[in-house]
Task: inverse folding
């Protein structure tokens, strides 16, 4: 008797990956589409900033500080007479790039240590977990403030490393938790019994199975990192002038709001729009992956 | 959501319940609470170590930085002696912790010869202001968020739920200062309902204080409500999916009784956790909102201290923020433990 | 089908209570609705017990709770009718259905531990339905509940109600839930696999209690299970379901003695297998006086000695908590013993996994209970079977692929499976792939940990046959851990009976399975339901005599 005769369920032909993605995209809700279009636009602006911006990043183009909106200076000028529209565009590049680098740092360190902790358990896990618990007891903005206080003048690299490492604790927590679930599964034990070494188990058995929650977390973490850096810059303790950064620009133009001028809301809104867009995409992705689980 | 330990909460409690029941010397609730308390203290201890050693890692000479590059070695040495920088690190740590326990955070670097400023004197009025703002926010936000969250969970996938979902998702993704400036633009500048700057001092009467704090409190409320509501909704939905809720429905129990009698007694732990998590989150929001509205709270103090590199103040503020966070989670833990039937009624 | 009742006058206990006609139910997954129940007719008379039997995905549970006019979230009625005592349950208002539930139709769920609210005392949950429906006042309800506890042979019927769900055992909880269902003296009770989560020795007690109370109150019942031997003890009439369709319906005795459909026969396929035992003095593995514990806790294994002859199967039998899986962990080196040793091919095995070399690891392979978790969902069959070939034998390229295909053919699959992911093949095929993975190492001993218990009967039979064939072909020894006696008969040469960390008995199959038995073996063997409608009655009578 062959297996096919009793298990008549013939598996349907496998669809290619790109087909699957296209199918999912077609079913994506409006909010997710909105999110994807916005993120694409931001990335485009960030990549081609020098070609889109009419003036240079820190070029003083007018003698008049806080000039009003005009055809010459679309969003007016700032306190030094620099073109705000151009600075908004350059800021996309700076703010997004730095947040991305910091998030990457967080995932590389936190993710790796998290998986190793879940796999090895014992004293390594205890040590890492206790330390992370302690660091997480200090809100990340407060921790970042404290660490940045020890630098004379925080450089971009300082900010990336500090924020990246602080957020690595959150990534550690999540990665450890999801990896722990995977480590408990029989196929990991089977690999161990086979005599596989730890790096192979991590890369081949665990990592592929924890990707969906980690991808989601990357989106959310990116938003948090972005907001933390913007907040720091807004407080004057993050990105330093003359670099164009949305958080910093809010701080520089903040006084205008008391005159009913909405200019400070532009860089703030730029941040809000991006994070909202990313959250919409993540929300859809979450719904997608959890929906599959419900369907069983 | 178990913020103090790496082990998923339910699992841990279950193991604890069985193990403690067998030993039977101490009531499992008391035992678990003591365990949590110890864990909280341990975390606080590590936090203090982390905070202290971070400041230790400071590159360059501290006193020189404060006194300026032109300071003579003698002045530097005298200053170091005055603020205790001449002793070895572990001695200073022990002294620092010893003093902190007694409420003495040492002298601010803003001190000069003959003009000593105590960190605790700087912090106390600011901390009161921040606690006032946070309590005001919590008073509005907690009932609002829990109520909305439960409603959204009960009417899942209804138009109400969908709208609330989109709105809150939008709100939580926005930076606090964006929300703050929008509110300021409309409510303070355009409508002139509230003052745009929240300047208060020790003598401001209560009602005046509430009026001046309206905008910062409103901003914080908007941010917190969104978070808290989403988490409440998720917790309740999770609860309503339990087999014993289905069983109650199949027993023909009325809808209101299913919610009140079957779901609610088991909902305390998740809801309390949501509240604790969000109140802790409030702390971060406070820093930004205080900066926007120039409110004289501890967040502003810390930002200023970071700017002027006044390390004793930075240390003290960080420690206070961390302690608040740990305390909130500890309270949440203790409430969840004491409403857990497995621990309340050991075998 | 409506005429079935004509053929069985002896079972006609009363008027028609429940009638389903052409019932259709659909379920949603990933935004697509697909049928779960595909047009089923069902008739139930007062006082009659109907067994619904089928394997996973048959729709039996969905059909069972549909009798209460209820569908789980994500499901919907799409056709047909359900009439309960003259009332159309699909058309009825929510309020009308609510009044019916609990009072006239009650439900007993599979997992009592999850179905009781952890926050309330058992007595309060037991009487909730009657007090809420206003049938009795609290005081008489409590007295009645205590009476029911007693009838269900719960210990301390007057005080057990004061306990919380986590304070009583699984078997007792299941009986409390039966009492809860019985409080309003409903016309109909739905039993949804009430004993599936229990050990066999506990199952017997629960089955006896349920049967006696249903008879005492002449309650109609729908008894849902996947175990034909269990339902044979409980039901007057049995319906066999498969993929949401009715396969066969007949009175119990008729169905057991003369099943009409091939599929029905396959439901007890494993019971048809019996391996002739053949002794072998040459031991490949011997476990000598092993103690083991997790951490410093209580001993899980206590002075365990087991001998596995070369090329034969030793079945390790026991209930949950007997230590049989821990024994496997000791052999594989995952849990080094605290005392004693394991001798493999004449040499002592290093106790810990990390001290065993590749060659040693290759010789002992393991197959798990659940093929879903034993296969990495991201690895294609090529990788799953290919890795041990690469790892132990250094194969690569065309040679590797050729060998993978050979192995696939050995497990009765073919080349076309090589690129598939585990999610793209059935449960039985997955277990075959697990076998191929173990086989790829060319082992001398394979530890099989409940390898068939997650599978449907007919697939179990195929897997067991495959394992036997491979044993004959390659002279592999099996250490076969199971709780199922039918499986033991099918595959074992020798049997080891374990209870609470100790070996109760070890010997050749025929010797262990025939009297005289040690007390625990007797209890275990006699508790396994047989394909005989009178089995439970006879067993209870026998035990009663023994106790007097």
Result:
């Amino acid at each position: 008797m062959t297996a096919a005769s009793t298990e008549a369920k013939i598996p349907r032909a496998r669809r290619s990956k790109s087909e699957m993605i296209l199918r999912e995209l077609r079913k994506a809700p409006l909010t997710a589409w909105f999110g994807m279009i916005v993120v694409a636009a931001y990335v485009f602006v960030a990549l081609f900033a020098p070609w889109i911006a009419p003036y240079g990043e820190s070029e003083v183009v007018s003698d008049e500080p806080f000039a009003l909106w005009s055809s010459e200076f679309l969003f007016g000028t700032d306190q030094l007479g620099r073109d705000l529209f151009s600075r908004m565009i350059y800021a996309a590049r700076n703010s997004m790039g730095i947040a991305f680098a910091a998030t990457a740092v967080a995932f590389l360190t936190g993710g790796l240590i998290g998986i190793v902790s879940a796999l090895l358990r014992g004293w390594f896990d205890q040590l890492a977990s206790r330390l992370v618990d302690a660091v997480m007891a200090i809100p990340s903005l407060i921790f970042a403030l404290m660490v940045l206080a020890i630098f004379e003048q925080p450089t971009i690299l300082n900010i990336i490393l500090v924020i990246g490492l602080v957020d690595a604790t959150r990534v550690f927590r999540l990665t450890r938790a999801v990896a722990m679930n995977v480590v408990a599964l029989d196929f990991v034990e089977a690999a161990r019994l086979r005599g596989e070494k730890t790096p192979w188990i991590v890369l081949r058995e665990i990592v592929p199975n924890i990707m969906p929650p980690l991808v989601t977390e990357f989106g959310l973490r990116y938003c948090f990192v972005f907001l933390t850096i913007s907040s720091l810059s807004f407080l004057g303790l993050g990105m330093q002038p003359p670099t164009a950064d949305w958080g910093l620009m809010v701080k520089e133009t903040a006084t205008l709001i008391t005159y009913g001028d909405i200019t400070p809301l532009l860089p703030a809104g730029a941040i809000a729009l991006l994070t909202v867009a990313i959250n919409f995409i993540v929300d859809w992705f979450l719904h997608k992956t959890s929906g599959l689980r419900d369907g069983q | 959501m178990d913020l103090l330990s790496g082990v998923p909460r339910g699992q841990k409690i279950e193991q604890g319940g069985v193990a403690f029941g067998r030993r039977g010397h101490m009531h499992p609730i008391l035992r678990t609470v003591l365990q949590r308390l110890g864990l909280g203290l341990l975390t606080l201890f590590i936090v203090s170590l982390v905070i202290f050693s971070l400041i230790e890692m400071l590159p360059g000479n501290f006193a020189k930085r404060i006194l300026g590059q032109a300071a003579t070695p003698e002045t530097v040495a005298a200053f170091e002696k005055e603020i205790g920088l001449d002793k070895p690190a572990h001695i200073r740590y022990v002294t620092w912790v010893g003093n902190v326990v007694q409420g003495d955070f040492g002298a601010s670097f803003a001190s000069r010869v003959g003009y000593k400023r105590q960190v605790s004197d700087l912090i106390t009025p600011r901390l009161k202001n921040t606690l006032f703002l946070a309590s005001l926010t919590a008073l509005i936000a907690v009932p609002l968020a829990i109520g909305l969250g439960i409603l959204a969970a009960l009417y899942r996938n209804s138009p109400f739920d969908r709208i609330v979902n989109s709105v809150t998702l939008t709100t939580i993704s926005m930076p606090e200062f964006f929300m703050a400036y929008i509110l300021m633009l409309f409510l303070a500048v355009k409508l002139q309902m509230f003052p745009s700057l929240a300047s208060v001092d020790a003598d401001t009467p209560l009602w005046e204080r509430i009026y001046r704090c309206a905008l910062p409190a409103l901003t914080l409320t908007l941010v917190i409500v969104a978070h808290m509501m989403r988490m409440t909704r998720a917790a309740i939905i999770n609860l309503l999916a339990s087999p014993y809720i289905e069983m109650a429905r199949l027993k023909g129990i009325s809808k209101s009784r299913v919610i009140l009698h079957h779901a609610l007694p088991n909902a305390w732990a998740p809801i309390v956790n949501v509240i604790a998590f969000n109140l802790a989150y409030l702390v971060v929001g406070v820093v930004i909102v205080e900066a926007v509205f120039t409110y004289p709270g501890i967040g502003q103090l810390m930002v200023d201290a970071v700017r002027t590199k006044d390390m004793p103040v930075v240390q003290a503020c960080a420690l206070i923020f961390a302690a608040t966070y740990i305390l909130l989670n500890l309270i949440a833990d203790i409430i969840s433990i004491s409403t857990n039937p497995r621990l309340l009624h050991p075998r | 089908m409506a005429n079935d009742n004509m053929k069985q006058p002896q079972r006609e206990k009363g008027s028609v209570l429940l009638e389903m006609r052409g019932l259709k139910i659909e379920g949603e997954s990933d935004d697509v609705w697909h049928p779960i129940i595909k047009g089923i007719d069902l008739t139930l008379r007062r006082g009659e017990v109907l067994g619904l039997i089928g394997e996973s995905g048959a729709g039996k549970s969905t059909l069972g709770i549909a009798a209460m006019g209820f569908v789980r979230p994500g499901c919907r009625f799409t056709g047909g009718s359900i009439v309960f005592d003259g009332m159309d349950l699909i058309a009825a208002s929510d309020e009308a259905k609510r009044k019916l539930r609990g009072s006239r139709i009650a439900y007993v769920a599979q997992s009592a531990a999850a179905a009781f609210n952890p926050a309330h005392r058992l007595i309060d949950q037991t009487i909730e339905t009657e007090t809420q429906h206003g049938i009795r006042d609290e005081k008489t309800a409590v007295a009645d509940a205590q009476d029911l506890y007693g009838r269900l042979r719960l210990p301390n019927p007057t005080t057990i109600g004061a306990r919380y769900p986590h304070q009583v055992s699984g078997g007792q909880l299941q009986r409390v839930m039966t009492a809860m269902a019985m409080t309003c003296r409903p016309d109909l009770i739905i039993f949804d696999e009430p004993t599936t989560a229990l050990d066999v020795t506990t199952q017997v007690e629960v089955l006896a209690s349920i049967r006696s109370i249903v008879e005492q109150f002449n309650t109609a019942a729908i008894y849902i299970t996947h175990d034909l031997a269990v339902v044979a003890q409980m039901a007057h009439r049995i319906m066999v379901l498969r993929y949401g369709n009715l396969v066969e319906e007949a009175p119990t005795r008729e169905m057991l003695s003369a099943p009409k459909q091939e599929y029905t026969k396959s439901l007890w396929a494993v019971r048809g297998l019996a391996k002739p035992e053949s002794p072998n003095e040459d031991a490949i593995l011997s476990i000598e006086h092993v103690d083991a514990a997790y951490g410093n806790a209580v001993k899980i294994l206590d002075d365990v000695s087991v001998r596995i002859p070369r090329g034969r199967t030793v079945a390790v039998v026991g209930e949950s908590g007997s230590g049989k899986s821990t024994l496997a962990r000791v052999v594989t080196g995952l849990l080094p013993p605290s005392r004693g040793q394991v001798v493999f091919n004449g040499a002592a095995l290093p106790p810990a996994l990390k001290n065993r070399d590749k060659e040693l690891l290759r010789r002992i392979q393991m197959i798990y209970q659940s093929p879903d978790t034993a296969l990495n969902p991201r690895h294609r069959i090529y990788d799953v079977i290919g890795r041990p070939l690469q790892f132990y034998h250094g194969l690569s390229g065309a040679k590797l692929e050729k060998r993978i295909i050979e192995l696939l053919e050995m497990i009765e699959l073919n080349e076309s499976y090589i690129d598939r992911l585990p999610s793209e093949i059935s449960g039985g095929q997955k277990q075959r792939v697990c076998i191929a993975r173990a086989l790829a190492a060319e082992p001398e001993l394979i530890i099989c940990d409940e390898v068939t218990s997650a599978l449907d009967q007919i697939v179990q039979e195929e897997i067991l046959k495959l394992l036997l064939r491979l044993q004959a072909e390659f002279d592999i020894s099996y250490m076969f851990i199971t709780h199922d006696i039918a499986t033991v008969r099918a595959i074992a040469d020798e049997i080891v009976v374990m209870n609470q960390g100790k070996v109760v008995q070890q010997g050749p199959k025929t010797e262990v399975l025939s009297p005289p038995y040690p007390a625990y073996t007797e209890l275990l063997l006699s508790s396994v339901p047989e394909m005989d409608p009178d089995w439970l009655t006879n067993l209870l009578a026998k035990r009663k005599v023994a106790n007097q």
Q: What stands out?
A: The mean pLDDT of chain A is 80.
